[in-house]
What we know:
Layout: H1 3-17, H2 23-52, H3 54-72, H4 77-88, H5 108-118, H6 127-142, H7 150-163, H8 165-177, H9 185-188, H10 200-206, H11 220-240
Helix pairs in contact: 2-3, 3-4, 3-6, 4-11, 6-7, 7-8, 7-11
Amino acid sequence: MTRLFLIFLLNLLWFSCRPEPTAQAVRQNAAADSSVRLADSAVVLRQAELYDSRIGQALERHKPVIKKYAKHYGFDWRLIAAQIVQESGFRSDAQSRVGAKGLMQIMPGTAQELSRELAIDYIFMNPRENITAGIYHLKKQYRMFPAADYDNRIKLALASYNSGIGRVFDAQDISRHYNRSANHWEQVKPYLATLKKSDWQLHLEVWPSGVPPHGYFNGYNETINYVDNIWHLYQVYQRLL
Length: 241
């Protein structure tokens, strides 16, 4: 008996002995295939809606520089895109009530510092420089949390970008005080809300001075929402882009 003929007989035997799928299994498989097709169709529809929107068009316009510097500093470009949406809605002329400007909403003092470090002069006037400086600034925050895993390191860095790194350091101190992880965003973020002046009794337990080293903080809701909104949108962009 030749080898090819033997293989043919074995395959024939396998197919003849394989049990027929039940009607329920057929229905389940069909439903699963249908769900996948519907999910894929929904993704395609959302992609089209995104690209047709003002934000989508701005994203396409700035995507080359976002991708270039996100890669240079070790970030997923879709994370940076989500951050820009949260910061400015992709409006290059955006300005906050406290003076932050541009796509990445960089504060004037921070802009001066970044301008020296990067040797660029038009952070507020040039969207490309604003994006470059913002990604670099996020990387600086990221480097301050080497003990955290990647996802939590990103979240802590985003919180620092929004609130200032000192606020996050102070919240980490309180997290350690309660024997919780200082390197996990979900465990640190509730303690941003305990940096208010009214929490003075807790502060006496944590710090000899009785006050947070980096000052009182009332903007905790904004920072918590900032991080969580970016992370949620980032997950959406991972699926769409």
